[in-house]
Amino acid sequence: MTMRSDPMPQPGQLLARGVCRHLRSYNFDSIVEFTPERGRRVDVMALGPKGEIWVVECKSSRADFMSDGKWQGYLQWCDRYFWAVDSEFPVELLPDGTGLIMADAYSAEIIRMGPETRLAAARRAALTRRFARHAARRLQSALDPRL
Fold first, then answer.
1. Model's pTM, two decimal places?
2. Strands lying side by side in the sheet with 40-47
3. Which contiguous run of DSSP H or E holds residue 112?
4. End-to-end CA distance of the chain
């Protein structure tokens, strides 16, 4: 039997791991690399205990941030939007009116809460169903990789 070796996580994936760990302390459950609609993929989407939905985009460098011109399209898919960066990131680049999370591979801290813009009820319901189905598929794939 051969052992499967996973590639080393990328810097943004390590930030996402720390963010997801921290969001558990807020009683949020998270999915990484989630697609709310075709053509859009958020780094972290988190579902809170009251049905609130947060999106977190993880940026590992200035170049990573500067190459992301689509972030404003994610605002319509969440109640709060955050950037997650490490302690070396030049935070003055981040747009005003967005949340800020300082993270590393192991934990994170919310520095600035993203402003709340509540989703419409129909969009929230559809997105919550998509979130649940996606999480169930990922769990089933982990339990039965041949599926």
1. 0.90
2. 29-37, 40-47, 53-58, 80-85, 99-103, 108-112
3. strand 108-112
4. 20
